[in-house]
Amino acid sequence: MIQTANRIASVEEYYFSRKLAEVRGLDTPELRVINLGIGSPDQAPSSNAIEALITSAKNPANHGYQNYKGIPALRKGIADLYKNIYDTQLDPESMILPLMGSKEGIMHICMAFVNEGEEVLIPNPGYPTYSSVANLVGAKLRTYDLKEELNWGVDIEALKKSDLSKVKLMWVNFPHMPTGRTASRAELKELVDLARKHQFLIVNDNPYSMILNDVPMSILSIEGAEDIALELNSLSKSHNMAGWRIGWIAGKKEYIDAVLKVKSNMDSGMFLGLQHAAVEALKNGKEWFTSLNKMYANRKKAAKQLLDLLGCSYAENQSGLFVWAKAPDTIKDIEKWIDEILYGTKVFITPGFIFGEAGRRYIRISLCCTVEMLQEALDRIQKFTASKQLNQSKTVTA
Ligand SMILES: Cc1ncc(COP(=O)(O)O)c(C=O)c1O
Known about the structure:
about 400 residues; alpha/beta; Aspartate Aminotransferase, domain 2; 12 helices; binds pyridoxal-5'-phosphate
């Protein structure tokens, strides 16, 4: 046996990589699994994007290695999106770097900026990849709590009082996954000011800004952000292209160049057909987002009915692809409860502990399945709960 590298002792296989294999194992033609776990949009991208991919793939000249920085039309499309959606001006030549998804960008950024032992601030609860990658590069993890009492906002006063001298990088993610919390411009400004004062890099991971959110915002639009901030973004959620792996990083030229140094040693560019498709998808206008958000708003109503049945409580105005909800106090072990529902009904719901200790009493329901499926999930859980109660009362009577 060859010994694995020490660094992988610091991480575990991604929760969904393990759990979804288990969930898939329960799927049978008689009773399909209803997966309310993962935020992978179930609808197709716009037809112009699909057509562009097909046309491009038919051209024999389009199958070679590509430029590491992506084609100019893609960078221009992303710059246009920043102007139209976030009212933010970016130079497409120097301030945008297309990536194969934004998740990969988390590793690129840590490789480019974080030395062993330097501190990385990570939201709790938060996307688990921030901490896994920080561990992989040998950084010192420092979580900051998002507090339910602050409606899941950052306790900025607590951060200000703490020693930030060794912090190299802070991850923020607004609209936040899993809580659905958005940040106001003033809150983002306070965070940017803190990063400037203590000279650390602040990165906003922004893939949910266009989903159920009236005021999409980029951290790069905040005054003073240009010298200390970067942003990750992608077409995964907003354009139904999660499996296509199209994302980007945006910010100051020198920072983009540093990330390119890492990235150009790790991949050999994005397939041209995908880039052509992305250029088309980026042309989607108001009607696309209106119809997408109408669909998610309807699903959210059905998801809330399911949560009501489960006795959960939740904030009304959550952005993004999920509903984050607190489990009832009567449930002692959330993971066990989730598994009981999974094995009793074949409905999979994400337990909140995977997003950090602050998520321990919570669950997350994805809006990436139809209203009919959410209603079917509700129906199954209702029947399961009723039969459990019946069995319990039989036991008591016996
Ligand atoms: C907070 C957050 N960031 C980043 C990602 C990665 O998205 P992608 O790599 O598809 O752009 C996800 C995906 O679920 C996410 O929830």
